[in-house]
């Protein structure tokens, strides 16, 4: 079971492992020290930081699917929703299930429920390629929140579910009014996730993902079971979203179906792509940039522009409303990254090499998807379109 | 029975609008294998343009028929040209540079444009749904003109949808099948390199395809505005997905298939609206999308190469 090997402790036995440990340790130290810094300077950014880090957690999960395995998932928010609703059903007095499950149990279960749905969706759709796969996941991502919205008897429909169970450690309950506590909880989950993802990438499974992303046919010829490998990527990605969903639900004590729409899927995708597809530190950094803009700076910058505009009498500045421009920012981030730097700001070296192959020689393969070449015959084009291998 | 006929009539009208949008997807996918995700937003931009023309002209439905008709024709022209040019520009600025990039790169770019255009819609007309002036009288042709004794409504707006859509569909079909440019489109769709070797300007042909798709989406924008009397910045998202489903359903790349697929989805939507609950309609449409792509990705009609553009 290659999956189980992920949990084997991380020995610093080889130079490669020591080299890889450096950014990990840096991230751990920085994130643990941040609240002290925040307090010392008096920034008060801990509260928005919690929302930002939940999105970063999502981006880490999506990176497994899009970055490592090269499968474009446009319905990732569905797994986020499934995780959040699982936690809510299990812990909320408002849910139809008998009340009283511990939050930690619910969190673990939401991990597995999301994973289960990843498998359920994955089995029929993963034989599709590239853009058709993207559209099917998008359809799934739209169906799930609508089901939660329409099944009012169970989910409360648009009224949502409230309250939701809170985590407690040694009799100490983590209240929503305690952002520092939430910050540390998410950091712990995040560090655990980074550790697991690093281990996965270094494992046989991780190498299979990369081989598959670079060339499916060659990977299959080398004995990789494509379906199983893809399914594991999809399920792992989904389970991280489930995790994030349960924390999200408990942190805000309220969920409704409108929090899991397509915008979230695209925002998380933009984080992964902007940060550097396939490189988890790039994704974390890109995620922090995008999410802190969205959850924090858009509002502040608008305020600053208005202040400056009123002070200097420049009418244009007072009319800027950046919160009204979030769609534009996500969209522009995607477009500019694709046009100017398709490998993202901080790419993994291997991924960057893959994305730039096509510039010298036309035989490029990327995203686990053979690029449609002009010399293909009509027969090949048709076979590709019907999802069958020629 | 009356209810069924009524439902089917509503579905047919909606279906024609979906068909117009679906043509844009099928044309572009047929020629460069790109799901032009921003196409639904082109339709939204078209309807905003039509709304601007109509509010600028300041006509309402109390004005004489002649004045209203002139404004409608002007709005149709403006919406079509504007939507067509935006689609053309997006291709020119972004997709063209990604012709040889991995196939997911243009798709992600298209998603980006979909969001950018939605935001432009917000800047242009605000985030709230807007009333589209009802320039067509809600006269029921069956009872008021033909004096039939029936409870079925076939109103002038419904007639208008068909009167504008059907000629456009036929015109596009004729263009692709019978003109030199249409022939160039079909050749490029079959084999881009061979087409280039035969002296076809491939880039110009692809630009033309985007322009044609945009023209159809713009027309759909005006028609939908006059028929449903409401527009909103994110209406293109769902309409676009419905139209894409229609295009896949009819066999992507197949013009006739896209039209039939659009009508089929319009009917499915209307039946679900009246026999299930309207709130389930989007879920059902998405389920159709998922099922068709998973089980029959070549579409119900399959691909007719001779008709492919």
Features:
heterodimer, A: 390 residues, mainly alpha, two-stranded antiparallel sheet, 4 strands, globular, disordered C terminus, B: mainly alpha, ABC transporter involved in vitamin B12 uptake, BtuC, 12 helices, 2 strands
Task: Summarize the topology.
The complex is a heterodimer of chains A (390) and B (309).
Chain A: H1 15-41, H2 46-68, H3 76-91, H4 103-125, H5 130-150, H6 152-155, E1 168-169, E2 172-173, H7 179-202, H8 204-214, H9 216-221, H10 226-252, H11 262-275, H12 280-312, H13 315-319, H14 326-340, H15 349-360, E3 365-366, E4 369-370, H16 378-385
Antiparallel strand pairs in A: 1-2, 3-4
Helix pairs in contact in A: 1-7, 2-7, 2-10, 2-11, 2-12, 3-4, 3-5, 3-10, 4-10, 7-8, 8-10, 11-12, 11-14
Chain B: H1 2-32, H2 39-57, H3 65-93, H4 104-125, E1 130-131, H5 141-145, H6 156-178, H7 180-190, H8 192-197, H9 202-228, E2 230-231, H10 235-249, H11 255-275, H12 281-295
Antiparallel strand pairs in B: 1-2
Overall shape of chain A: globular
Q: Taking strands numbered 1, 2, ... along the chain, how are they ordered across the largest sheet of chain B?
A: 1-2
State the secondary-structure class of chain B: mainly alpha
Number of β-strand runs of chain A: 4
Our estimate of the beta-strand percent of chain A is: under 5%
The biggest beta sheet of chain A reads: 2 strands, antiparallel
By oligomeric state, this entry counts as heterodimer
Mean pLDDT of chain A: 79
CATH fold-level label of chain B:
ABC transporter involved in vitamin B12 uptake, BtuC
Instruction: List the uncertain runs of chain A.
Output: 360-390
CATH architecture of chain B: Orthogonal Bundle
Mind summarizing the main beta sheet of chain B?
2 strands, antiparallel
Number of domains of chain A: 1
Considering residues with a beta carbon less than 8 A from a beta carbon on another chain, report the largest interface and each chain's count.
A-B, 58 and 52 residues
Averaged pLDDT of chain B = 86
The percentage helix of chain B is: over 70%
* Class derived from helix and strand content of chain A: mainly alpha
Share of residues in helices of chain A? 55-70%
CATH class division of chain B: Mainly Alpha
Radius of gyration of chain A: 22 Å
């Amino acid at each position: 079971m290659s999956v189980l090997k992920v949990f084997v402790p991380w020995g610093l036995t080889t130079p490669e492992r020591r080299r890889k440990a450096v950014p990990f340790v840096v991230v751990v130290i920085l994130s643990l020290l941040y609240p002290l810094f925040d307090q010392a300077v008096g920034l008060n950014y801990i509260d928005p930081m919690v929302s930002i880090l939940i999105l970063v957690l999502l981006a880490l999960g999506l990176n497994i699917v899009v970055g490592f395995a090269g499968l474009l998932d446009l319905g990732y928010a569905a797994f986020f929703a499934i995780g959040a609703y699982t936690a809510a059903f299990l812990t909320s007095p408002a849910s139809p299930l008998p009340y009283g499950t511990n939050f930690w149990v619910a969190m673990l279960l939401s991990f597995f429920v999301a994973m289960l749905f990843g498998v359920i969706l994955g089995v029929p759709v993963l034989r599709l390629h590239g853009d058709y796969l993207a559209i099917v996941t998008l359809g799934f991502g739209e169906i799930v929140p609508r089901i939660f919205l329409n099944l009012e008897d169970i989910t409360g429909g648009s009224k949502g579910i409230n309250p939701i169970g809170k985590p407690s450690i040694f009799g100490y309950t983590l209240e929503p009014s305690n952002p520092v506590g939430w910050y540390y909880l998410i950091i712990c989950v995040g560090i655990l996730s980074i550790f697991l993802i690093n281990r996965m990438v270094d494992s046989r499974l991780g190498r299979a993902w990369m081989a598959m992303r670079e060339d499916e046919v060659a990977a299959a010829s080398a004995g990789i079971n494509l379906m199983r490998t893809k399914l594991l990527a999809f399920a792992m990605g989904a389970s991280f979203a489930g995790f994030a969903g349960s924390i999200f639900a408990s942190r805000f004590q309220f969920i409704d179906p409108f929090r899991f729409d397509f915008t979230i899927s695209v925002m998380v995708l933009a984080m992964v792509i902007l940060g550097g597809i396939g490189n988890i530190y790039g994704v974390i950094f890109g995620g922090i940039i995008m999410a802190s803009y969205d959850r924090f700076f858009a509002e502040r910058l608008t305020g600053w522009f208005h202040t400056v505009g009123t002070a200097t009498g420049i009418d244009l500045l007072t009319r800027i409303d950046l919160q009204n421009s979030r769609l534009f920012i996500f969209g522009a981030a995607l477009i500019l990254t694709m046009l100017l730097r398709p490998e993202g700001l901080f790419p993994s070296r291997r991924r960057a090499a893959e994305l730039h192959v096509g510039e010298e020689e036309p035989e490029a393969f990327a995203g686990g998807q053979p690029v449609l070449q002009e010399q293909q015959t009509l027969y090949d084009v048709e076979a590709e379109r019907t999802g069958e291998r020629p | 029975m009356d209810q069924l006929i009524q439902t089917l009539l509503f579905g047919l009208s909606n279906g024609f609008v979906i068909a117009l949008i679906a043509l844009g997807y099928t044309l572009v996918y047929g020629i460069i294998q790109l799901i032009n995700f921003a196409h639904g937003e082109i339709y939204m931009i078209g309807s905003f343009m039509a709304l601007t023309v109509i509010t600028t002209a300041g006509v309402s439905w109390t004005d004489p028929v002649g004045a209203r008709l002139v404004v409608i024709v002007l709005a149709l022209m403006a919406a079509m040209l504007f939507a067509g040019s935006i689609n053309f520009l997006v291709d020119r600025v972004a997709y063209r540079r990604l012709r040889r990039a991995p196939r997911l790169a243009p798709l992600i770019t298209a998603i980006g444009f979909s969001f950018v255009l939605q935001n432009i819609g917000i800047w242009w007309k605000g985030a709230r749904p807007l009333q589209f002036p009802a320039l067509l009288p809600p006269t029921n042709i069956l009872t008021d003109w033909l004096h039939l004794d029936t409870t079925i409504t076939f109103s002038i707006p419904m007639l208008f949808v068909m009167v504008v859509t059907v000629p456009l569909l036929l015109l596009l079909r004729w263009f692709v099948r019978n003109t030199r440019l249409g022939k160039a489109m079909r050749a490029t769709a079959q084999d881009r390199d061979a087409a280039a070797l035969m002296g076809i300007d491939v880039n110009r042909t692809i630009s033309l395809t985007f322009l044609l798709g945009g023209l159809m989406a713009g027309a759909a924008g005006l028609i939908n505005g006059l028929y449903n009397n409401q527009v909103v910045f994110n209406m293109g998202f769902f309409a676009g997905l419905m139209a894409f489903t229609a295009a896949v359903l009819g066999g992507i790349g197949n013009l006739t298939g896209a039209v039939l697929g659009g009508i089929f989805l319009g009917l499915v939507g209307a039946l679900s609206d009246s026999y299930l609950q309207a709130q389930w309609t989007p879920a059902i449409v998405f389920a159709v999308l998922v099922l068709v792509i998973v089980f029959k990705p070549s579409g119900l009609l399959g691909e007719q190469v001779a008709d492919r553009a």
